[in-house]
Design brief:
The chain is α+β, with helices and mostly antiparallel strands and 180 residues long.
């Protein structure tokens, strides 16, 4: 047996890898230490952004994961690696909601402890233009509101996705996160 094949099992119903066990223990330790909630960590007007290159490999991994097999997204082929691809917009394009998936990686600052008790409850996406495979985009999120509804606390964010090279605005989104 290879070392990477070893699996740590926590119980018969839910086997976990060593990484999953450590992440679970860290999460529980954070709860016990009184970690901040998302509501506490975010200030209105706080803006964060990151750049992301939407490679053909990333597109294929996403499309396979959500089982969205569309030839418009194919900028990669076995033994050829990169191809231009075809779509009604010219070359291969990125699945429209792929960038929405990466918004959380911008909202949750990896340099700070992970906020406990956060649930993405709503988003309203607006697709403005197709994103070509290979583009580098800047995902920017800004906390625009904190509000309470039925005794629960929410943080609202405005999101935009722009091309780093020419500033093309591809995507906008408003999303709400429920916080303990």
């Amino acid at each position: 047996m290879f070392e990477h094949d070893a699996v740590a099992v926590t119980d018969a119903l839910r086997p976990m890898s060593a990484v999953q066990i450590e992440q679970t223990r860290s999460f529980i330790a954070g709860l016990e230490a009184g970690s901040q909630t998302y509501w506490d960590m975010v200030e209105i007007g706080e803006e964060r952004s990151r750049e992301l290159t939407l490679t053909a490999e990333l597109v294929i991994l996403y499309a396979d994961g959500v089982e969205d097999y569309n030839e418009w997204y194919e900028g990669w082929r076995m033994n050829s690696w990169r191809i231009e691809g075809r779509s009604p917009f010219g070359g291969a394009i990125v699945p429209p909601l792929l960038v929405s998936h990466f918004v959380l990686s911008v909202q949750f600052d990896h340099t700070r402890p992970f906020a406990i008790g956060s649930i993405h409850t709503n988003h309203d996406s607006e697709i403005l233009a197709p994103i070509p495979v290979g583009a580098t985009v800047r995902i920017t999120t800004c906390a625009t509101d904190k509000y309470e509804k039925r005794g629960r606390r929410y943080v609202r964010h405005a999101v935009k996705v722009e091309d780093v090279a020419d500033g093309t605005l591809y995507f906008r989104e408003t999303r709400d996160i429920l916080s303990l």
